Amino acid sequence: MSFLKHTPQFAKQDAIAILNDLYDIQATADALPSERDQNFRMSTPSKECFVLKIANALDDPALLDCQNQAMLHLNRQVTFCPKVVTNRNGEFISEIQSPTGATHKVRLVTYLPGVPMGSVQRRSSGLFEDLGRCVGEMDRAMTDFDHPAARRDFYWDLAKGLQIVKEYHPLIPNAHLRELIEKFAGYFEQSVTPLLPDLRKSVIHNDANDYNVILGGNGDLYTRNQRVVGIIDFGDMVFSHTVGNLAIAIAYAILDQSDPLRVAAHMIKGYHRPFALTQAEIAVLYPMVCMRLCMSACIAAHQLKERPDNEYLMISQMPIQRTLPRLTEIHPRFAETAFRQACDLSPLPRAQTICKWLDRNRITAAPLLDIDLCTAPLKIFDLSVASSLVSGNPEKNKESHLTKKLWEKMQAAGVSVAIGRYNEARLIQTRFIGNIDSPTAEHRTVHIGMDVFAQPGATVYTPLAGKVYAFSNNEGSQNYGPVIILQHTTDSGDSFYTLYGNLSLDTLEGLTAGKSIAAGQQIGRIGSADENGNRTPHLHFQIITDLLDKDCDFPGVVRASEQHLWKLFSPDPNLVIGIPQDRFPAPDPSTSDTLAARRKYIGRNLSIGYRNPIKMMRGWRQYLFDDTGRRYLDAYNNVPHVGHCHPKVVAAASRQMSVLNTNTRYLHDFINRYAKRLCDTLPAPLSVCFFVNSASEGNELALRLARAYTGQRDMIVLEVAYHGHTTSLIDISPYKHNGPGGKGAPSWVHTAPIPDLYRGLYRSDDLQAALKYAGHIDDIIRELQDNGMGLAGFIAETCPSVAGQIFLPKGYLSAVYRRVHKAGGLCIADEVQTGYGRIGTHFYAFEAENLVPDIVVLGKPIGNGHPISAVITSPEIAEAFDNGMEFFSTFGGNAVSCAAGLAVLDAVIEENLQSNALKAGKRMLAGMIPFIDRFPIVGDVRGSGLFLGVELVRDRETLEPAREEADFIVNRMRDAGVLLGTDGPFENVIKIRPPMPFNESNAEFLVANMERILTEDFLV
Ligand SMILES: Cc1ncc(COP(=O)(O)O)c(C=O)c1O
Known about the structure:
The chain is α+β, with helices and mostly antiparallel strands. Helix content is 35%, strand content 17%.
């Protein structure tokens, strides 16, 4: 590379002198990275900023002029391009001599403040769209620009891509990559080269790579660095296909992106708005993107041959090597469809024509089976995510279970045929079952064929005349098994296909490709489970408008994020089958319809989680599933304590529901058994239970017990506490009565400071903190007594959750209990959040302090979602409450609730969930405590077991809460499929409180995602 020998070698001092001499500007200099020329950022005392560009001695002066002219031209029309500054003689280019005597051309341009996209980790769809817009605006502005120097023979010209690739690809050492590149090149030559003459040409920037795109924007955390403020470095300009400029920008933007097509579509959408793409440009775009990456790999191989020691070259190629294989999975015609849709053009015109033709010919199509599906009695199965025919437990979805259930349903309905719906998101037949490596990755869930369930051996006929196009036995679980594809032709000559999957093996015997099949002719039989890919016997019938060269591997189940595109490639099979639409149930409301109805009919202060709300359809253990079948790792919900939809809890409650569910005025053994089991988990003298339906009711009852026993009314509570939503509980919940809409504490409520060792009055460095905090209780009691008042009690969560996942200082609660008892009050432990082993070390959090509360309130987790709350106290207190007034709760303690409660207790113990919580919690703490040293925003990581908090602060000294940042991280984690929440008086504590089956690998997944998001530059 002879260019490198002529790279200018000026020092910062030289740059300062050059700027002063040539431009009369005084400034400081900072070197900017560049290999073949030299760039200095020059900052003046008045905060003006420029880039001093000293060209390589071999650089063509005409090309430098071309760059200047292009920038001057662009400056008249766009805002994101540097401005060229003249020297003291009014010239755009000056000349200087290096100490070695070489002549270098010098230019000065304005510096665009911002961050190079290459150093920004988070790239939102808004950013990609904005980048597309800028490239579009740039190309529109350049349509009337030309310069002789741009009409050059340049190896980075995409128009020369095929030639470069052909020449250099043999130099690529990695055989697999080489083959891929050959394949791309072959496709390009065949399908793109003929279209090239139709493409528009102009002078293009030709290098909108990550480091030439400058980002800014700082509205909020979501928009920070998500807007393009500059496109720089015009050194690669060339006269070429205009669309190449966009292809190059896309090629860099999609590197290492999990969904390259989505990224490209966003950019195209942005581009098309200011500068409409032609249909031919859209058609070549995807192959051009791939070609650019192939070119880059080939040129790098060539450069490496010349400079084998250049490690940087090798490293910079890694993203291309990782991305290219993924691009081969996307068929160019599929990409073209996505891109046309992004441009609001008819996305797949042939699909429209074929669908219209099918619609017209519906009446003449022959029946698929011996019975006419249009008129015969049918069952339409719901196999969607929330279907009761499907289980959250993958084991229960296995063929034998499912077949049994489906046959039973058909028998009960008196039908011999049933239908599985088209365009239905399912948890069965997806690749995702059993995959726990990436528990939240998107899997193929949406079914784009129609299932016709019937007995194995049932004859299948083709509804439309055609010929055999392909057939195969796609063995393997969840595959098509024996499958045939027929080719058909519309009147206007368009080909389309019908796919018949899960047939019997003998169907394939004697078949030959090209064989003609008449409408109504038998083509096979429905296969049995042992020959059809281990599936419930059915015919999978699908229409295909473009096979995308996939033949018998054409997917029958696709990713929900691409559902809108696949529906064009596989329209509704009912176009051929013709079952009257009114025999199908109405489709479920979309997420946006559900949201609109929620807003209309439900009180607005019932908040909805996340900026992008989730329509949740199913739960299983520590996972939740939305309406598209996407799986989320639940690290937030403590109510499904033993796991969402625990089968034993479900069975116990539903069994009892079908036997008896009545109130506690009759004798029943379950309430007694449940009460005894609960008391067995608690220390003496806690041995009398009351049952109600929610923890709010539980705490209300606890208040009444304390007042009945002491004859007093006043209560001591902790700052920021929350104990429930009823009127008196709002009174004892400073989190509510001191929060928005609150009216402050009533006179009978006395608030003690929250013993928060991180940001409270006394902190972890104060060895006397526990006693000092307890001293405030003394103050309150003294004041009460001075006023001649008594104390009913003290209520606190043993580990205050709403206050920010606080662990109280050792010795604090025992000191408080002593003081309260001495003053005649009772101590109520609200163990709603921490009971049943959540903190890992103990079954109840108060045990860690060796305490015996007077009243314990349990709620939320003890019913695993069934509404139960238990209040347990001593016989003495219960007796005082028994003052003649009857206590009755209509639903509290009913047989169904007790059955559920007993099953939860069994599961916690049988499944060792407390020790699981300890292990998983330790793993998370080990992963997250180092964040305190690595990320200034992470002020504290605390907790035990599966009750953890990560407190975020903007300043380690002032502890300014990082509330928006916490909310941002929680929303980013949601995008990654991990559900979390925030808490604390400033909502700056990330709350981790998963169902108890949450395991160590889940812990690692959570930590890795949080680390990735903390590394994103939203904090910069
Ligand atoms: C500590 C605590 N106590 C009581 C309650 C009230 O529970 P519920 O909403 O079931 O009435 C809550 C609810 O969040 C709570 O966190």
